[in-house]
Amino acid sequence: MTATDPSRALPLDPSVAPPGTRNFRDAGGIPADRWHADQNEETLVPTHCCFCGVQCGMYLRVDRAGKVFGVEPRNHDINRMRLCPKGINAYQQVNHPDRLTAPLMRRNRDEPFREVSWEEALDHTVAEIRRIQGEYGNDAFGLLGGASLFSEKTYLVGKFARVALKTKHVDYNGRLCMVSAAGANKLAFGIDRAGNPFSDILLTDCLLIAGSNVGECFPVMTQYLWGARDRGASLIVVDPRQTAIARTADVHVALKPGTDSAFFNAVLHVIVAEGLTDEAYLAAHATGWDEVRATVAEYPPSRSARICGVPEEQIVQVARMFAGAGKAMAWHARGVEHHSQGVENCLTIINLCVATGNIGKPGAGYGTITGQGNGQGGREHGQKSDLLPGGRSISNPEHRRQICEIWGIEESELPPAGTSMMEMVWQMQRAEIRGLIGICNNPFVSLPNYATVKEGYDTLQFHAQFDFFLSETAANAHVVFPVTVWAEDEGVMANAEARVVKHNKAQEPPAGVRTDTWVICELAKRLGAGDKFAFPDSRSVFEELRIASAGTVNDYYGITYERLEETGGISWPCPTTEHPGTPRLFEDGRTYHPDGRIHLQVVEWHPPMDPYSEEYPLSLTTGRTVAHFLSGNQTRRLGALVEQTPRPWVEVHPSHGFRNGDPVRVVTRRGSEVFPALVTEAIRPDTVFVPYHWPVPTAANALTVDALDPRSKIPEYKVCAARIEAAERVDEVPAPPTAPGQLAYPETQVSRTDPLPPTSPQGRGTAERS
Fold first, then answer.
1. pLDDT (tens digit, 9 = 90+) per residue, 20-30?
2. Helix (H, G, I), strand (E, B) or coil at 581
3. Could you confirm whether the keyword 4Fe-4S appears in this record (predicted)?
């Protein structure tokens, strides 16, 4: 073991050393976070994790040959030396044997892929773009991006679609993540981001977590929850399942899926009835309160208790605990947002915070926990169908003029708003969209109603996909471009706090692999727009992004690579290079609406879109598990993670009569699949849960409904009508797709065939193997 800088070892007083550390200190030790398990000529590259919206700091270990071979936690103030199972194993994908290292191409889907040169792959793609647009118009070709891309690349996705492809059809897989929260935030506050930094959680007296399995989906964020608890804060968890965090809560509200807005309306009803609102704050800072108060009067606990399937007393308890705290905070995630009334669910939580005056103060506020690494930054700069860089509206004439001036095009050349990701799939089915480029997404696993998705993609005349592994979606394409992983390029992401952090390049990509930026710019050049895409690297893109965001709500102009390296992250808006950034919003009581006030919104509860019946009496809900990430294209290839969680399962209540490991068929109106049972009292008797990281025939999203929120267009993943029945054997988990000549990585194959559920996912349930 060697210290990073032995010369800076501090003389320490042995008399004040904690027990057991005398020998360590007497040897001239320094704080443990400055020690690294180095090898000779090793380089430690500071960067951030590629996975969730917490964006933990880490060091990638690079050997003398310039190859990433390991990881160490970094004492960044986001994570303080902590990493979750995914973060610890993330480095293994960099030099993984499944990496794509040459473009793949075929003329039709009946042919096998063959490796081709970059020239052939690019030229063929451009020829197909020109053919389809020449025959059917510019909007017959679409582009789907991703929220795990660096912000520089998301900026390029939006610009490429509108300037090079000249199509209105561009969207991204963040549409499946956080857009309900975005829509609610814009309606209420005029800005799309969390109002408070994570560190404010440490200062709160009451913390409400709604629809977020923090312990598994955002493990390192739990340090903030425990810190608040250590100070004496109360904890309320609203979730149909008794997750690891819910087990520790003062109150766990196990409401029926799809009833969130009815519950929060009832909580606010009690707060109003008991005189616990902050009327002075509302009068000074909000509009719409009279209408909201009149609406929640129609949601007494007796009514909402019947809707939600929870005790009336629990609604009253939550109301008094939240409103009676000196400082209260609410954070939520996909469990609230993945609904056909996802925006409205979020608005009811905003109403609760505003009505109690818990906005814009240390320890008091409102936040949304981003699922993807750049779920926040990924929608800020133009790859979302209705937005331009800086969060500008593509329908606003002045916003259009501003961006056209920066891009050097006429306003008449800028397409109007397009449609959402799921709507684009329906347009593929109807042959309205006939060609598609996909970047950093895997809709064959991540979109609902797989049969519809497969039909839509199969109807495409041409489909190209960017990826570093051959995903299930890429395996169905005509052209696959092999691109870099996060450690082979540099760029920025904005985490769930809207803190912009810098990822650093740790190694050169394998021979034959190119950055997404290079591929996009090469395609643009061949489409005749090369002068608008003369970007040699991420830094040059970021400089244009800064200019394009200047003066907007999403202002990045004052953020530079150098400042990010120096500070460890800056929260936008940051209008000048002297500005410190804005970790906490609304401290002066003003929002980003022209009148400076919070615009409260009336919400009426309505049932989920997939109706219950005698044939389908149960709720199917879906979510993540600690070992895997989203569609699993990365994590299902990492041996330790596959060993920890080799397959999906169905969580069922003991009242259904199954034993652990029994084959259980889950049936919805979209189809059926068979999973091993994980029998647990930690789920409602009327609800079953299946994690969604795997493809057919074990794909939860083969069963979910493609109903959308009318405002955010997010799918209703978290509730659909279902039934369960005994089956003979579980469906087998398929191996991840591989390129021609590659074999499935053996380290990930053995445990994948295990027919049983994990023995103890986060300690829940009664699963025991015999």
1. 333 433 333 33
2. coil
3. yes
**Which residues, listed in sequence order, are joined to residue 482 by a DSSP beta bridge?**
467
Angle (deg, nearest 10), helices 516-526 and 151-159: 20
In angstroms, the CA 538 to CA 732 distance is 42
| Sequence-distant (≥ 6) Cβ neighbours of residue 515 within 8 angstroms | 483, 484, 488, 489, 509, 538
Helix (H) / strand (E) containing 330: strand 328-332
How far is residue 384's CA from residue 362's CA, in Å, rounded to a whole number?
32
* Digit-coded pLDDT (tens) for 42-89: 899 999 999 999 999 999 999 999 999 999 999 999 999 999 999 999
For residues 299 and 262, the answer to whether their CB atoms sit within 8 Å is yes
Q: Give the torsion sign (CA, 503, 508, 514, 517).
A: positive
Predicted pLDDT of residue 759: 61
CA atoms within 13 A on the CB side of 125: 33
Q: Which strands form 435-439's sheet, in the order they lie side by side?
A: 114-115, 104-105, 479-482, 462-467, 435-439, 141-145, 170-172
Over 5-17, what HEC string results?
A: CHHHCCCCCHHHC
Amino acid at position 26, single letter = D
Phi-psi region at 228: left, alpha or beta (left = phi > 0; alpha = psi -120 to 50): alpha
For residue 21, what pLDDT is reported? Answer: 35
Position 246, amino acid: A
Q: How would DSSP label each residue in 141-208? A: EEEEE-TTS-HHHHHHHHHIIIIIS--S-EEEGGGGTTHHHHHHHHHHHSS-S-SS-GGGGGG-SEEE
Which residues does 161 contact at the CB level (< 8 Å), separation at least 6? 142, 143, 167, 169, 170, 383
Provide the pLDDT for residue 556: 98
DSSP β-bridge partners for residue 365 = 329
Neighbours of 96 (CB within 10 A): 17
> Are 237 and 209 in contact, with CB atoms under 8 Å apart?
yes
Q: Answer yes or no: is pLDDT of 229 > 70.
A: yes
Q: Helix and strand tally (H, E) in the chain?
A: 23, 30
Structure tokens at 113: 């892929």
How many whole angstroms separate alpha carbon 230 and alpha carbon 755? Answer: 41
Residue 79's nearest CA partner among 90, 70, 87 is 87
Over range 195-212, report the average pLDDT. Answer: 97
At 604, the amino acid letter reads: E
179-189 vs 342-355: helix crossing angle, rounded to 10: 40
Q: Is residue 48 within 8 Å of 503, Cβ to Cβ?
A: yes
What is the number of alpha carbons within 13 Å of residue 166 lying toward its C-beta? 15
| pLDDT value of residue 754 | 79
Residues 245-291 have pLDDT tens digits of: 999 999 999 999 999 999 999 999 999 999 999 999 999 999 999 99
Alpha helices (H) in 527-656, listed in sequence order: 538-549, 561-567, 639-644
Asked if residue 766 has pLDDT above 90, the reply is no
Contact criterion met (CB below 8 Å) for 382 and 388: yes
Question: Maximum CA pair distance of the chain?
Answer: 82
What's the pLDDT band for 37 if we cut at 50, 70, 90? low
Region 378-394: mean pLDDT is: 96
User: Which residues, in sequence order, are bridge partners of residue 210?
Assistant: 238, 332
| Residues facing residue 467 across a β-bridge | 482
Crossing angle (nearest 10°) for helices 301-308 and 260-273 = 160
CB burial class (10 A; 0-12, 13-18, 19+) of residue 31?
exposed
Sign of CA dihedral 490, 495, 498, 501: negative
CA dist 695 and 685 (Å) reads: 27
DSSP 537: S
Closest CA to 61 of 634, 569, 507, 488: 507
